[in-house]
Amino acid sequence: MERYRDIGLKLTPQRLAILEFLDGNTSHPSAEDIYNAVKEKFPTMSFATVYNTLETLRKRGLLLELNIDPERKRYDPNIEPHHHMICLRCKKVVDVHFEFDIKIPAEQLKDFHLLGNHIEFYGICPDCR
Ligand code: ZN
Ligand code: MN
Q: Which residues pair with 93 in a beta bridge?
């Protein structure tokens, strides 16, 4: 929670509940998932509050936005470099912590200065097979 202390937003109880839900969360929730979870505690909370908080965190580099799920954006509070697998049936997104030794041929790379990569794997998870 420490890293969320100075996000430039007033930390209302509702926003704190969003941050608490995200902290250490590895389920790669969508904005709707987050809204539904936090709404249980704060029934009057609006979807806009959730979305604005997520956008603020994303712009500050504290939250990754994943486009791995074609149906909805997914969010990842783990901003350390890692990769993902998605189950095409249940849309579960799983972390892949492995440093792949992949290289772009020099003639294609030209003078592009690479800062990182993100690999997305698609398949069917054990629960769905
Ligand atoms: Zn599945
Ligand atoms: Mn992840």
A: 86
How does pLDDT run across 67-102, given as a tens digit for each residue?
999 999 999 999 999 999 999 999 999 999 999 998
Alpha-carbon gap, residue 22 to 38, rounded angstroms: 10
How many angstroms does the Cα of residue 72 sit away from the middle of ligand 1?
16
Ligand of minimum distance to the alpha carbon of 63: 2
Distance from the alpha carbon of residue 86 to the mean position of ligand 1, in angstroms = 8
Strand, helix or coil at 89?
Answer: coil
Q: What is the pTM of this model?
A: 0.89
Q: Which fold has domain 2-76?
A: Arc Repressor Mutant, subunit A (1.10.10)
Cα-based distances in Å from 66 to 17, 74, 103, 109, 112: 22, 5, 23, 24, 23
Handedness of CA 78, 10, 15, 70 (dihedral sign): negative
Give residue limits of the domains in the chain: 2-76, 83-123
CA of 69 to the centre of ligand 1 (A): 13
The answer to whether the beta carbons of residues 8 and 60 sit under 8 Å apart is yes
